[in-house]
Every structure is written in C-alpha cells, then in structure tokens.
Amino acid sequence: MTRVASGPAGSGEADLWCTYAAVRTLAWLGRTDAVADRAGVRACLTGRRNADGGYAWSRGMASDAWATYYCTQALAELGEAVPQADRTREWLRDTWSGEAYGMTPGQAPDVWATHFSTRTARTICGDTVPDRAALTGWLRALQSPDGGLCWTPGDAEHGDADVRACYYGVMSWREAGTGDPPPWDVPRLVAWLRRRQDRDGGFRFTEAAEVPCLWATYRATAALAALGAAPRDPAAVTSWLLGLRGGSGAFVRWAGYPVEDVWAAFCAVGTLRALGVPTALVEAPVVARIRAVACPGGYTYREASLAADALTTAAVILSNGGGDAAARTWLEGCQLPNEGGVMYMPGRGAEVRCTLWALAAGAFAGDAVGRSRIARWIVDLQNPDGGFGHWAGRGSDLVSTVSAAEILRLLGVTPRRGLDVERLLGFVRSCASGDGHAPVPGGRPTLRAGLQAHRLLAALGHPDASAVTRLLATHRVRGGGWANEGDRMPDLLSTYEAALTTDRLGLPLDGSPVARFLDSTDRDGGTAWTPLAPTGGGMLADCLGGLLRTRLSRRRRPLPALVLS
C-alpha cells in the first residue's frame, strides 16, 4: 500500500457547500465582483450536472435536491444561465412524493429537500409545486405539540422540533406562493423559536443543544422574519453575533471555536439581514476572508492549505496502516458541540459516512465519552421509517442506514440495544426491487444497494448467502471487478463492496479477477475509480485500492466497511 504524508488532509478541491455559501454571502453584500475565478466556479458548478437534469455533490455521483439547489442557486447569484433548466424541472418533478419532495426520486420526503426543491422549482425553473394543497397539508403536519416544526410529520409525533426544520418549513410555505396564511399555529411556533434564544443572545437548535451557534441563530431569525416576527431580544442577538468576530473581523460559528470559516460568514450576514441591521460594518472583513478561502473552481471553508476533511484524513490513516496519531486527533476534533457525530469539515453538521470512516480509521479508540456521544447520536438519528439519512432530518437511504449499523458495530453496540430493529428491517425490505435492492424505496436496483442490504440483513440475523452469490454473478465483469449496474463497466466502489460482502458472509473470493481490475485502474497519479478514467481518483480511491490489494496479499487484512454511495 502506498504511504502518504501524515496528519490531517483535504482534497485540495472546491467544496460545493462552501462555494454556495461564499457566493451567496458576496451576493447579499452586493460584492459578486469579488468572486475569484468566476469562469472556474461556473465550470465547477455546471460540471456537477447529470444527464437526468439534477446535480450531484461531486462529479459522477447521483443527483440529489441538496446539490441541485446549491449549484443552481450559486449560478443564479452569479448571473449565469442554468443549463437546460427544463431538464432540472423534470427531475424535480420526479422527486415529488404526492405531498412534498424527497432528496432523490423514490426517497421519502423531508423538510430539507422540500425547501430546496420548492425554491429551485420556482426561482430556477419557473415552475410551481405539483399540488399546493397537498404540500400545505404536509407542512401543517410538521408542527409538534410544543409548537416547533420537525423534519417530517412522523418526527412531529415524537416532538423532535429543530430550529433548522422551522426555517425550512417556513421557507417552503413562502416559496410555494399559495397566498394562504401559514398553515401552523403561528403564535405557538413563534413562541417556540423565541424560547431557543440564549440569555447571551444567540439561538440553539433545540432545547437540548449544548451551545448557541450562528447556524441556529440565522435560521431562527430568518424564520421569525418570514413570519412577520422578531427575536425576543433583537439587540442581544446583534451584540452576541458581533462578539463572534475573530482576529480578521470575520466570524466563527460559536464561542471558543478558533476558525473564521465561510459558513460562519454566511450565517452572520444572513442574520444581520434578517434583523434589518446594516452589513456595512462587517462587509470588508467578510469579503477579505472569503477571498482568502478561494481555491481553483470555487471555495473551501478556510485557507485551502489547511482545509482538511474527515473522509480524506481517514483515508490517509488507513493508507498509512493506522499509525497516524496526529490525524486521528484531528478527526476526534471534528466531534463538536450540539451533535455527537463527526463532521465532514469542522464547523458544519455531523454526517454518518464521515463518522463511519473516522471510527474505521481508529478515532475515539480510547475515548469512552466520545464513543458514547456517537452511539447516542446514531440512536437518535433513526428516522420514523426505520432507516437513516446522511445527517439529522434527511430522508433514509441504504448507504446511510448500513453506515449507521456499521458505526454501532465498531462501537460494540448491537442494533437491538438502541434501534427499533423491526422498523429498520422494514426500511431495508422497502428498498427491495425485483431480484435486488435500490438505494431508496422505489428506486432502480444496483449492486451496491443489494450488497448493503444483505450486510444489514445478515447483521440482523437474516443472512442470505445464495442471494448474494446470485447478485455478484449478475454484476461480475468478465475482465475483472464488478459493476454497479449491469455487467459491463466495473468500478472501484462496487468491487470493494463485493469483496467486503463476500468476507462478511463467509463466501469465497477469487482474487485473480480482482487483481486484474486493480491493475486496470493503476495510474501514475494513483488509483482510478474505473478502468476508463484517465487519471487517479484522489486519496479516497487510493485508499480503497490499497486496502483491496492488501486484502489479496498474504497479509489478508480484513476490509473495513467503508461506503460512499
């Protein structure tokens, strides 16, 4: 396995969320003239567009509403044309559930996706929601008994309200443009939001959140403004916010966090606008800070040379054989206040896949408190349908669901000690499609989704080795490796999961065709994702390729259960 430099690491590439946050913030300030490499930003955003009209988190991944919103909104803020917006409109219609929007076609709706898609449909595609009355009813059902809004109507039954869900629900209602009054008990909703304001002025996501932060404060103040209301103490919000300026005059997300990052700037400027406070005082330092975090094709969250992320850092550790204490310490630092999981980049939201990769790389091995926080976070993350999404409130998919189960496995927690196993089984079975499984209910079956489902079923006491054998035979490529769809184009992710699943179920693995596949992906710049890719796929591809080669060697080191899509 190729050794790489130690310590925390990043991809060196522009991040979609950071790029959107930077562009939107500059637009709010009337300073899109300060956007660095405008042509490169446009190429980066349009390069995430798929043939189906949706956009992906990164090139080659499946379309989702999150990426579609951020890509198209950033293009619009730059005054750039959104290519073939009619195709995007059709893709969005495919994500409509009959009441609201899912992140992908077939996925259960949640308020994140509903906000993203309602806004994209109206502002980018010139479209309306397919059924305004149905959407209004769905939004009404988000209100919990205590007055706040929840991620889904199912969450509302348990009272799991969150400031972010309030914002996305209110904005979905506003963007739908029905002309009707808000579909909630507005005085109770406003009161719930106002109760989230801390004595110092900032807002918390929920009653149980550990500290107030700028993200919660922006979402709360913007939701209140859209309802024609204001915080309990607006002056205290402004005072608290201005107290979060760092040495450059830009912002940090919460007190004690040392990095003035791009999403703190986004939330701070958004909050000032929601309060009606002039932004001239902070314009110069915020613009300067955003310029400082530019990289080719867009932006990252801090200086590019220091912009590490959890996936790349975990890949470095795994590629180095697990002996990188500095990198593990950095990963453990991605478990920050308010959520128990590991963040992709410090200062944003905790994500399931990043938490799985961090644990697989040995993070938190001696930290009982940190491990306990992760376990509680995972248990609380289970959706009403029994599955898991990438982050809090996002609709369920098999990648996230198998990641959650693998996290508990690494923590030594059996699913039956915290999860609703019957609902979990119900979600996995709802993804069944023909002879296989799809990533989400109603989707198209793929090899990886089938393998993920069968690893989950085996972990829950329902192994089916014969079904896995048939699935692998269907997608085995004659020249070596496995394809996610059909049996023609093998790819690294599918081949890795094929080997992982055969090991997990105790099936034999013929190493020769796997070795031929790996040879076909060997490039001067590292390991490619497919035999046709002209260049290496970066540290994540190098990590998975190296782990596979070690698995085929005499050392036969077991494969960690790493998934991406």
Task: Explain how this protein is built.
It is a single chain. The chain has 24 helices and six strands. With 565 residues, the chain is an all-alpha fold. It is globular.
What does this entry show, briefly?
The protein has about 575 residues and is mainly alpha-helical. The protein has helices spanning about 15-30, 40-45, 65-75, 85-95, 110-125, 130-140, 155, 165-175, 185-195, 215-225, 235-240, 260-275, 280-290, 310-320, 325-330, 350-360, 370-380, 400-410, 420-430, 445-460, 465-475, 490-505, 510-520, 540-550; strands spanning about 295, 300, 430-435, 435, 520-525, 525.
Please summarize the sheet with the most strands: 2 strands, antiparallel
The quaternary structure here is single chain
Structural class: mainly alpha
* Widest sheet: strand ordering: 1-2
Task: Tell me the helix content.
Answer: 40-55%
Shape: globular
Order of helices and strands: HHHHHHHHHHHHHEEHHHHHHEEHHHHEEH
Radius of gyration: 23 Å
Distance between the termini: 23 Å
What's the total number of strands? 6
**Which segments are poorly predicted (pLDDT under 50) over 5 or more consecutive residues?**
none
Fraction in beta strands: under 5%
Name the average pLDDT: 94
Q: How many DSSP H or I helices?
A: 24
